[in-house]
Amino acid sequence: MKRIFIALKVEAEEPLLLMISSLKSGLSNDIxxxxxxxxxxxxxxxxxxxxxxxxxxxxxxxxxxxxxxERFELILKGLGVFRNSRDPRIIWTxxxxxxxxxxxxxxxxxxxxxxxxxxxxxPFNPHLTIGRIKQLNDRETLGILIExxxxxxxxxxxxxxxxxxxxxxxxxxxxxxxxxKFNLE
Length: 185
What we know:
Elements: E1 2-9, H1 14-26, E2 31-34, E3 41-50, H2 52-67, E4 72-82, E5 90-95, H3 99-114, E6 127-135, H4 139-149, E7 153-159, E8 161-170, E9 173-183
Antiparallel strand pairs: 1-3, 1-8, 2-6, 4-5, 4-7, 5-6, 8-9
């Protein structure tokens, strides 16, 4: 049994790294678990604990579906929080609307449902998790930083492949181990 998810890898470049650095220094008195730059990704589907035989079926499905999809690019844009501004839990960077990303997501979800895999029932909201807020003392600085970056285009991300990851939870934080990579055409 492995804890798995399907995602797109993001290699952080200078504008994104500078924004993250600005957030870290501006919010240095708060308790925030920052996402390691090695772990930055866009989740397409979180599957959780999955049996080995099911992982093989998922891999076969992903190989087939990715062959039907062309490579594309995404634009990282903006900054925001999940839950709400009064009680923020997640700091994220958004993805500019992309029909190709939505199409890729939809065919993968359809493939997973075809394998009778139960999925979270919530709308697709593509983003990069930058940090998880444990304790926030300075909401004002967070608000200023969000306003500063909310319309900023940060980076163009090439999407050449989909990756099936195993999430290994350690005391030091999660480690995301690629189990298989599926090239887009």
